[in-house]
Known about the structure:
Structural class: alpha/beta
Largest sheet: 8 strands, parallel, barrel
Bound molecules: glyceraldehyde-3-phosphate, 1,3-dihydroxyacetonephosphate, zinc ion
Low-confidence stretches: 145-153
Distance between the termini: 24 Å
Order of helices and strands: HEHEHHEHEHEEHEEHEHHEHH
Helix content: 40-55%
Strand order of the largest sheet: 1-2-3-4-5-7-9-10
Mean pLDDT: 95
Amino acid sequence: MTYKDFGLVNTRAMFADAIKRGYAVPAFNFYNMETLQAICRATTDTHSPVILAVSESAMKYMTPDMLMGMIRGMGFTPGNVALHLDHGGSFEACEKAIKMGFSSVMIDGSKLPLDENIALARRVAEYAHQFDVTVEAELGTLSGIEDENTFSDVSHYTNPADVVRFVRESGIDSLAIAIGTSHGAYKRKNDNEELRFDILAEIARELPEFPLVLHGASSIPQHLVKTINELGGALKDARGIPADQLRRAVSMNICKINVDSDSRLAFTAALRKSFADNPENFDPRKYLTAARENITENCIAEIRDIMNSENKAM
Length: 314
Ligand code: G3H
Ligand code: 13P
Ligand code: ZN
């Protein structure tokens, strides 16, 4: 089976269109049936293309067979859905995903020295391209959250001087860059912090028309944080990337925006609310329906307010 048998596409045409028409394709992470259904409902209702992102740990959680069974069960019509390995940690992880039916992979060698990062990305790209699978790699490392509640002060912004060589020598199809975003729900110590648009501008100048990717780009909607905290949660000082900064990044060649934490918040807020409002309920389908709907609502809001990808499905 190849990804085409699942009605999936690689990211090449998606990114070309996104750059041409000034939007970002959302990459939403999923890890179970409800999150997958929620994301797909949001993107079909808004006629938006989508990249369904699966981390290695999410793949382990679902198991490869269940994951691909769910993908088959969605019954995609070809054109607007890519299945993407998020943060692949090795050549072997990318190879396995491609054999399973993924249409796009990320090889994350961002913690390696530059030459090793390039060599690893090239090896994955040479393999993936034989199957018409597209490849993302990362240059620079995102600060923050290896531990959800602490800020790491270590941040290595992408050096614009390296990007042309990296892309040319590796042969990758898109590049994730570090300009001040970070994974998780604690992205900024205060509201004044800005992304490094100066670095983004230089990279975009060096790589005109080349697809750039923003990880760690959840906006951490405060109404979701508030609901969680009011109902017993403890997400103190959770802060994301403001929508206006994300929109500005989209106007500067960022054509894939990765969102995971926001969906986790939508899921968690809906569960807490459902438990609080219906203490007598013990049918998981009821609270999981609420969770699914809340994720859909949040994805639709982000497709409209941040990605500008509504009605861009081909
Ligand atoms: O960028 C990382 C994603 O949010 C996936 O996280 O490994 O906990 O599934 P995970
Ligand atoms: P967030 O934690 O900001 O949602 O980032 C997700 C991500 O980058 C997945 O690769
Ligand atoms: Zn990421």
